[in-house]
């Protein structure tokens, strides 16, 4: 799990995407809490962590889209990220790589 988390290549399972999504939400929750408690220092922490956190969730979303056989740009469709949490991936190999479940 979490092989090359910042890479846009490959496929991931629903569980890995769900954990990534929860980590992303937790990061921003803690960032806003830190900002509320520490003021400007919290703003700096939020700004420093924003780009890597967004890169991480976009990369994980693209890999989840690949598991369904779609381009990573599909994640920009409103509410498609919720669909990614529940939809089963394509069986077998597709143009984006091997099935992460190992099922042919």
TrEMBL record:
Protein name, entry field: DUF805 domain-containing protein
Keywords: Membrane, Transmembrane, Transmembrane helix
Signal peptide start and end residues: none
One cellular-component annotation, GO: plasma membrane
Record's keyword annotation contains Transmembrane helix: yes
Species in which this protein is naturally found: Cytophaga hutchinsonii (strain ATCC 33406 / DSM 1761 / CIP 103989 / NBRC 15051 / NCIMB 9469 / D465)
Lineage: Bacteria, Pseudomonadati, Bacteroidota, Cytophagia, Cytophagales
Membrane-spanning parts: 12-29, 35-58
Matches recorded under PANTHER family: BLR8105 PROTEIN (PTHR34980:SF3), INNER MEMBRANE PROTEIN-RELATED-RELATED (PTHR34980)
């Amino acid at each position: 799990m979490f092989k090359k988390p910042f890479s846009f290549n490959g496929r991931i399972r629903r569980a890995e995407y769900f954990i990534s999504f929860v980590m992303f939400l937790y990061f921003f929750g803690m960032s806003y809490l830190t900002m509320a408690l520490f003021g400007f220092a919290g703003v700096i922490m939020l700004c420093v962590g924003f780009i890597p956190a967004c890169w991480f969730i976009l990369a994980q979303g693209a890999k989840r889209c690949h598991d369904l056989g779609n381009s990573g740009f599909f994640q920009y469709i409103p509410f498609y990220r919720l669909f990614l949490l529940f939809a089963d991936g394509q069986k077998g190999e597709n143009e984006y790589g091997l099935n992460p479940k190992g099922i042919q």
